[in-house]
Structures are given as structure tokens and as C-alpha cells.
Amino acid sequence: MQKFMLTRITVGILAVSLLSLSQSACSIFGVYKIDIPQGSPLTQAQIAQVKVGMTTQQVRYLLGTPTITDTLNPNRWDYVYTYIPGTLARNAGLKPASGEHLVIIFDDSGKVVSIDGANTFPVTQPGLPGSKDPLLNAQPL
């Protein structure tokens, strides 16, 4: 009788332990991770619209606010982008993006003098959600 009680208690403790372990955050299935996009997700088509001689307002309209503006050199704008895929994106086959760095140099009058790093950005940016705006997703007439 004593041996039967000990076995029953041991099985009960083991069952509770396994159940709590499988429900904990430290489970063997891993932890859910979110996507981490940082910076300005640009494409080569957007960068190709920027031409030497454009003003700062025109560049800001085409590419958005620069990721980095140097306070010691306001004539240099840097657009940097990195993307670390989360759990769902990795399962969908999306790769991380890093090393995307565009540098635009302006002269003292605010005109583009040089554009460097355009080839570091891809043709399309993976991992970006589609627009929820019905006008942008409308079918052509």
C-alpha cells in the first residue's frame, strides 16, 4: 500500500511539472519575436528619382526625413535601414536587411551635389506591410 501511494504521488507531481513546464515562457517551442524595422525603407526606384541639383525640400518630399542629420555638417543627409525579421517573417522566408546606407551631400545653397550608396538598397523592400489606404490599393480604371 505504501509503495502504491508513493508511485501515485510521484506520477502526480511529474504530471503537474510537465504541464507547468509546457505552459511556461521557457518552453521548448521558443519565444515569439516581433519584426524590427529601423530607419528609412527605401527602394532603388525612389532613390533614382533624386538628381544632382535638387533642393533639400525636393529630396525630403521624395525620400522622407533623413535617418541621420549631422549637427556639425548639415549639408550631409544619411538614410539608413536595417530589418530584423521576427518569428512570422522568418517562417515566411524573409531575410534580414542590413548595410543599406544612402548618403546625400548638399552644397551651401541647398542643392544636391552627390548621391552615394544607392546600390546598397534593394529593388523592393521585403517585410513592409501593404498599405491599408483603399485609394492606394484601388484597381486601375
Topology at a glance:
Elements: H1 2-23, E1 36-39, H2 44-48, H3 56-63, E2 68-69, E3 76-84, H4 87-91, E4 97-106, E5 112-116
Antiparallel strand pairs: 1-3, 2-3, 3-4, 4-5
Structure description:
It is a single chain. With 141 residues, the protein is of the alpha+beta class. The chain has a domain at 34-120: Beta-lactamase Inhibitory Protein, Chain:B, domain 1, CATH 3.30.1450. Helix content is 28%, strand content 21%. The chain has helices spanning 2-23, 44-48, 56-63, 87-91, and strands at residues 36-39, 68-69, 76-84, 97-106, 112-116. Strands 1, 2, 3, 4 and 5 form a 5-stranded antiparallel beta sheet that branches. A hairpin with a 5-residue loop joins strand 4 (97-106) and strand 5 (112-116). The longest helix is centred in the first third of the chain and has 22 residues, at 2-23. It is elongated and about 85 Å long. The mean pLDDT is 80. Belongs to the BamE family. It holds the Pfam family BamE.
* CATH architecture assignment name of the domain at 34-120: 2-Layer Sandwich
CATH topology name of the domain at 34-120, in short, is Beta-lactamase Inhibitory Protein, Chain:B, domain 1
Specify the number of helices: 4
Output the helix-strand order. HEHHEEHEE
Briefly note the structural class of the backbone: alpha+beta
Q: Give me the Rg, rounded.
A: 26 Å
Q: What is the arithmetic mean of pLDDT?
A: 80
The separation of the N and C termini measures: 83 Å
Kindly estimate the percentage of residues that lie in beta strands according to DSSP.
15-25%
Classified by CATH, the class of the domain at 34-120 is Alpha Beta
The level of helicity is 25-40%
Q: What composes the largest sheet?
A: 5 strands, antiparallel
- Residue stretches low in confidence (pLDDT < 50, at least 5 long) are none
| Beta-strand segment tally | 5
Q: What spatial form do the alpha-carbon principal axes imply?
A: elongated
GO molecular function: protein-macromolecule adaptor activity
Protein name: Outer membrane protein assembly factor BamE
Family: Belongs to the BamE family.
Main location: membrane
